[in-house]
TrEMBL record:
<dbReference type="InterPro" id="IPR036737">
    <property type="entry name" value="OmpA-like_sf"/>
</dbReference>
<protein>
    <submittedName>
        <fullName>OmpA domain-containing protein</fullName>
    </submittedName>
</protein>
<dbReference type="Pfam" id="PF00691">
    <property type="entry name" value="OmpA"/>
</dbReference>
<dbReference type="InterPro" id="IPR050330">
    <property type="entry name" value="Bact_OuterMem_StrucFunc"/>
</dbReference>
<dbReference type="InterPro" id="IPR006665">
    <property type="entry name" value="OmpA-like"/>
</dbReference>
<dbReference type="GO" id="GO:0016020">
    <property type="term" value="C:membrane"/>
</dbReference>
């Protein structure tokens, strides 16, 4: 199985997996949460996690579950909250039958907003967990190491 990354016009990237016949296999994970909480924003969020679990089980791909927050509260609080959110999704995936060695989680806090935090809608959309897929455990671990290095200097800085 091959993996390619496509950048969209909006500057967002999506990961696409190709099976042995080079047919595209895509499954996005973007789960939103209630404010200051590890509770999904609505019932459809659990269904999205369930669909993602089935995708991981069918493809055998590895995943990093990334937790993110809005910029409300302090940076350390947001980092801890994002870590708990990502861990919750990881635990849900495992409870749905995904091999624990196939999925890891990591918090980013407020370091990587996709939307404008000066609006309520932007804040709500930044309270999210998303998934990145990888072909192997080594690819996943290399990515985690590089991401930890990237955010290490900014995760607790107050803005």
């Amino acid at each position: 199985m091959k993996k390619i990354v496509i950048n969209t016009l909006l500057g967002l990237s999506t990961t696409i997996a190709l099976n042995a016949a080079d047919c595209i296999m895509v499954k996005e994970l973007n789960v939103e949460f209630k404010n200051a909480s590890t509770v999904y924003s609505n019932a459809s969020e659990y269904q999205e996690v369930k669909d993602y679990a089935n995708f991981l089980k069918e493809t055998g791909l590895y995943a990093l579950i990334e937790g993110h927050t809005s910029s409300l509260s302090g940076a350390k609080y947001n980092y801890d909250l994002s870590t708990r959110r990502a861990a919750k999704v990881r635990e849900t995936l495992i409870s749905l039958g995904v091999n624990p060695s196939q999925v890891k989680s990591m918090g980013y806090g407020e370091s990587t907003p996709l939307y404008d935090n000066s609006t309520e809608d932007g804040e709500a959309k930044n309270r999210r967990v998303r998934g990145e897929v990888f072909n192997s455990a080594s690819e996943l671990n290399e990515y985690i190491t590089s991401e930890k290095n990237r955010i290490a200097s900014i995760k607790y800085q107050e803005q």
